Amino acid sequence: MRGTIRPLALRYAARPSQWRCTARWQSSQASSTRKWSTPLAKSLAEAITTTGPIPVAAYMRQCLTNPHGGYYTSRGQETSSDPFGKHGDFITSPEISQIFGELIGLWTFAEWRAQKITSKVHLIELGPGRGTLMDDMLRTLRNFKPFMGSLDRIWLVEASANLRETQRRLLCGEHAHLETCEEGFKSRCKYAPDIEIVWVEDMKFVPQDTEAAPFIIAHEFFDALPIHIFQSVVPRSNETTPSITTSATAVSDPAKQTKKTKPNEWREMLVNPVSPYDAILNARAEKAGPAPDFELIVSPAPTPHSQLLPRLSERYQKILSITGANIEISPESQALVADFARRIGGANQGSDKKQPAGAALILDYGPSATVPTNSLRGIRSHKPISPFAMAGQVDISADVDFLGLAHSALDASPGVEVHGPVEQALFLSAMGIKERADMLIAKAGADDEVKRRIETSWKRLVDRGPDGMGKTYKAMAILPYFAERELRRPVGFGGDISV
């Protein structure tokens, strides 16, 4: 489970013009001689010095996926390390217990069976990590011969070359070869050699096959997608407007002039290098970890993002009147889930899809119904750290806006419905996690250590306490919608497995 940190102090970017000139001159002189925590931090600071502060989304994108020092794209190039597991930076549910992946495989089969799908099936996972989740899913699904007979291709959306190799070894075998293909790379599944596994760097490279039913799994994927942060502020420039005077009237007493307060505006939070002076103070004050190289400032004027994104939903407008309120919006997340919806249910206009089919299962952490705020976090070696420290060597994430995702899916396609989000504890319990754990414990025989590991791992996944994952993590499903059929609740979301 990824850690959290306290909200960072913010700075307002408006300064007297002579201060700004001095600060920019000093920063341009210092950026080349100052000691930065990572090479990526240095290159980002130099770029910002030239072009100005950047949105949080741009900062996250560079830190996570920059080909020269990004967290996911460069990790493991010089060593065999990866971000996952006990020796990495964080641990995910599939790494904690094999039962997690088995139940996701069972959910996929149950949904395929409930929809009575007769077409071919594409299984798609975004951000497969080490491949553990897909491996546990396939090991479970191979027991259902009809489903495996309909499975035409497996797609893995992975930007890291190092992780692709790790996934290839686990899912295809140590001696399997990774071949180049039109979409990216491919190999053969060890559980079913006639099924191809294809790796692509982005979901846009997965063809929208209208003849196939897509089953899409996104586990802890959306939390790593870039976010924009906005703050509600009272405009500082021209905050009041004096009454108009004309040449025919005497100039009024300034004390009697009427003042009209401007309404609040959304201003974008931008990333800027910490000043050299503040960097020295931070280095002396920081005792828990490395001092941040960057900080958040409030844009002194509206930006294109602040003028567009918060206006896309009434949810944001209701918060605007609260001065100092922060909201987080991920347009990439909204666009991606809209793509899921169109693949499953067809587009609003001009869709070639014969009828809705398939499913998307999203498992991640974030609030069920509220707008995420102050959730940007960094984690390294299982400990919280500033997301603005050690750029490229820290995992950066933010809460997922589940309600925003649901709205985006429903707006994108008339052929889908959304179920959830529900707490992970409820979802996994409904899928039979305790019963499966009891089976594995029974198979362990007299090995008390194996029994203990099984017991503690499955309980951690459903524990609703502060140290567990059962309450913080949520599950949400996007399924086909048929106006002429009775509403069906899927298994895990209040429904039962059809017999």
Q: How would you describe this protein?
A:
The protein is α/β, with parallel strands linked by helices and 499 residues long. The protein has a domain at 93-225 and 331-366 and 401-480: Rossmann fold, CATH 3.40.50.150. Helices cover 34% and strands 19% of the residues. The chain contains 17 helices and 18 strands. The protein has helices at 17-30, 39-51, 56-65, 71-74, 93-96, 98-114, 132-141, 145-150, 161-172, 276-285, 304-308, 314-317, 331-345, 402-412, 424-431, 433-443, 448-462; strands at 11-12, 54-55, 120-126, 151-157, 179-180, 185-188, 196-200, 212-219, 228-233, 265-273, 294-298, 326-329, 359-365, 377-380, 383-385, 395-397, 416-423, 473-480. The strands form 3 sheets. Strands 5-6-7-4-3-8-13-18-17 form a 9-stranded mixed β-sheet, sandwiched between helices. Strands 1, 2, 9, 10, 11 and 12 form a 6-stranded mixed β-sheet that branches. A hairpin with a 4-residue loop joins β5 and β6. α13 (331-345) crosses α14 and α16 (433-443) runs antiparallel to α17.
Outline of the structure:
This protein has helices at residues 17-30, 39-51, 56-65, 71-74, 93-96, 98-114, 132-141, 145-150, 161-172, 276-285, 304-308, 314-317, 331-345, 402-412, 424-431, 433-443, 448-462; strands at 11-12, 54-55, 120-126, 151-157, 179-180, 185-188, 196-200, 212-219, 228-233, 265-273, 294-298, 326-329, 359-365, 377-380, 383-385, 395-397, 416-423, 473-480. The protein has 499 residues and is of the alpha/beta class.
